[in-house]
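**Fold tokens**
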Amino acid sequence: MDIEHVRSRFIKHFDGKTGTIYVAPGRINLIGEHTDYNGGFVMPGAIDKVVMAEIRPNGTDTVMCYSIDQKDRVEFNVNDTQGPRTSWARYIYGVVQEMKKRGVEDKGFNTAFSGDVPLGAGMSSSAALESCFAFALNDIFGDNMIDSHELALVGQITEHNYCGVNCGIMDQFASVFGKKNNLIKLDCRNMEHIYVPFNPQGYKLVLLDSMVKHELASSAYNDRRQSCENVLAAIKAKYPDRKIELLRDVDWDMLESIKSEVSEEDYKRAAFFLGEDDRVNGVVDALNAGDYEKVGELMYLTHEALSKEYEVSCEEIDFLNDIAKDNGVTGSRIMGGGFGGCTINLVKEDIFEKFVKDAIIKYGDRYGKRLKVYDVIISDGARKIC
């Protein structure tokens, strides 16, 4: 992101004075898909694509926001109980309200912001926006009174209460807690986390955006959650003396013991979850050993399971996964909720250009769409720049 561009817009649209510049990143998730709502593990990392905001208190109760990318200006009072209707401004309004609930006496401020986190590509531009403003308001008005866990929750609750999106915590957590050259193994049951080194010399991470999103996504997501609940209920009934609250508390023997009592489909969904949690732990071991070939192998296994067991892939994404295999890419899988979106690929640098070119040509020939290509670097989380 260009600091001078953001600063020039801030100066132009307000009183000519400068403020303080903050950034918060988008994220990728290397492995650990559809595990969060079952209390499992995910493995995100902050990336080098961010939302950047310049902010300066204005001595009033009015927040004056200018979206550089939208070329749009919105104002609201910090005490307004309804807030603005403009969708992008709802995120800032929600953060202001949630920070107030936590004792941060937000006053009015001027802000201009921009971002290079691609919209709709599964890199969580909304979490970057929330995390940027939560971190900034905590720094400006709260004297850093709120800890990082709570800042992540502010972003999540903003999505729930002000933007109508019932998201998990992973996106905001990665945006706040991100650390350069490290991924985060996050336990979605209790929010405990560890950093895992990720500095793949001789490799690149690249996302290929299929530019498709099938309509199945929302209903299929609910169906799969229900399948997991069905299996959980059957296991709770069979083991009433055990403390079983989430599918995370189930082991393979327990799952096999109720296989005949649930549908084949429900069994497959639960088996995917147990397998995916095992794969996350396998990737942690491989990264600690510096074995990126093993990481790639587990990424391919996750894609196969997401496609065949959890059935959330689609023809276009499977086609991109096949192109990755044909080009000798180390690891590739669908990233995100499914039925379109991106593949995330771990690619050796010496075949990177050939792979990307081949994917663009073959995908365009097959589907008449041009792939969007995003190479990403694992970077730091929310922070003050200057």
Q: What stands out?
A: Residues 104 and 142 are 5 Å apart (CA to CA). DSSP finds eleven helices and 13 strands in the chain.
